[in-house]
Amino acid sequence: MYFFVPLVAAMCAALGVMGFDISCNSNMAVYWGQNSGAAGSLPYQQPLGAYCDDDSVDIILLSFLYILKGQGGYPVLNFANICDYTKNASVPVFPGTELMHCSDMGVDIKRCQEKGKIILLSIGGATAQLNSDAGTFSKQIWDLFMEGSSEFRPFDDAIIDGIDLDFEQQSQFDTIQFANNMNNYF
């Protein structure tokens, strides 16, 4: 078994596979957006596009959408030092909400996808407020970040590839209903 994993990885590399490849078991997924390495003397995280140039990264999880239902009934995003209106007043939010408009991230998402990267939006995190019903929330996620339509699109016309659920606390949120709803939209 241990021989098989490196062999498949070597075969994928030899074939020049770059980006996500479902036939390889050496795909690398990374969380991006919480700047956790910047504590102490480490540098701040770079814009998303910088990580798309790293051939060892195949899947990027944008972390996090952490409040499901914030002001105006819209979710709230937190990407640390990148696109955070609480730390940078020049970051726009959509009227009547705390939902940030992250145009630069939208450009980077499309650039990453052109390089074969899978881009997922991670919902939850350690400080998540899971305060929405799954039916309404799944439609909202589809419209805001995926192939639906909304007057508010945080990443403009960029469409994420999927969702990661990172619920680190007990919740009444119906993840099964949410997943089934999202599956039905595809």
Structural account:
Helix content is 27%, strand content 16%. The protein has helices at 4-14, 48-52, 103-114, 134-145, 175-185, and strands at 29-32, 59-67, 76-77, 118-125, 162-167. Strands 1, 2, 3, 4 and 5 form a five-stranded mixed sheet that branches.
Major beta sheet, specifics? 5 strands, mixed
Rounded to the nearest angstrom, the radius of gyration is 17 Å
Tell me, what's the shape? globular
Distance between the termini: 35 Å
Mean pLDDT: 84
Series of secondary-structure elements, N-terminal to C-terminal: HEHEEHEHEH
**Low-confidence region ranges:** 1-17
Determine the number of helices (DSSP H or I, runs of at least 4 residues).
Answer: 5
Oligomer: single chain
Helix/sheet category = alpha/beta
What's the arrangement of secondary structure elements?
Layout: H1 4-14, E1 29-32, H2 48-52, E2 59-67, E3 76-77, H3 103-114, E4 118-125, H4 134-145, E5 162-167, H5 175-185
Parallel strand pairs: 1-2, 2-4, 4-5
Antiparallel strand pairs: 2-3
Helix pairs in contact: 4-5
Offer a few descriptive terms.
alpha/beta, disordered N terminus, 186 residues, 5-stranded mixed sheet, 5 strands
Task: Please summarize what this structure is.
With 186 residues, this protein is an alpha/beta fold. The protein has five helices and five strands; from the N terminus they run αβαββαβαβα.
